[in-house]
Amino acid sequence: MRNLSVLISGAGIAGPSLAYWLSRYGFAVTVIERAAAPRPGGQAVDFKGSTHRTVLERMGVWDEIQAHRTGTTDVVFVDERGARLATMSGEFTGGDVEILRGDLAAILYRHTANDCEYVFGDSITGLTETADGVLVTFEHGPARTFDLVFGADGIHSRVRRLAFGPERDFVRHLGHYYCVAGASPWSDSATPRERIVSYGHNAPGLLAISGGSKAQQLYLFAAPELDYARDDADAQRRIIEERYAGLGWEVPRMLTELTEFDDVYLDSIGQVRMDRYTAGRVALVGDAAYGNTLGGFGSGLAVVGAYVIAGELALADGDHAAAFARYDEIMRRYAKIAGNANAGKFLAPTTAFGIRMRNWFLESRLFTLMTKYGDNAATDIDLRDYPALLAAR
When comparing pLDDT for 234 and 341, which is higher? Predict the structure, then answer.
């Protein structure tokens, strides 16, 4: 296999995971990221089950993830007076191990930086496939040609738009938005890794979650697709203030503190639906291919998908057509685990009756069974031992 050159767009979770495996198998890897550096902080992500752990152990990052894991966060739903209505356990939301997205990205970057070329502060503007490769143009850097291009650039993937078509053709708006503001309670490395409690209050179509004064805030609310700039924090604050005006409990205090937080992120809850994740010499990995916002499987799908597509490419000696076909087949089946989740509808029901039913469900045996189903689904893949297969050649 000749030393194929590959470009990966995105330095979050899927991108560096893919970079790790491709560089290990002898590909010349370039990762491009529009941010100026690896992004710190962010929400917590989790892994669950033997499949996720196996991939992370084969990457040599499992012990580091354990060392940087967060504690367990229970969410207690309360009424306007603060009386408990139901509890969503941290074991459900945090999987077997939970880690801040920024901490995970930093670990993956450290394991790939010496073997891959990273280009920060730039992004792809055009893709033109030729008989021998893909001509890529960039916002700032000169055009370059690569043998293969991978989009690991999130649910709003630019690579997907350029290679497959407009976002509206592949991303389904699930009727809700979410907003995260403030640093995670686990951002301070001195914080003991133990159980903490956050509190959530619902009104029809609205949910506000807070761990207390100056703590990280999470908002979920029902809404049709909104027109706003995702890089305008002030506009995002105004949307939250308008939606939550008049809501009781601790929401007035939260809205006052919201103006003091620099890190505010608002986005829609959406689901990517694609029949295939590859087109010619371009392939999608992670949320760009099978994202489902807050669906609970995104980080696991990202690392498994990266492992699979890199392994299939190596086994096929760089024959991308054969490898991409296998990747499509394997991941279409496995990615179904995130297909039916709708976090917005579950966490912020649009009726008072829906809120009562959600609270009842959280306290019932059905919730335990749903948690077990999710754990089983996370391992529902025939995971090939690519490193062993390639070493045996």
Answer: 234
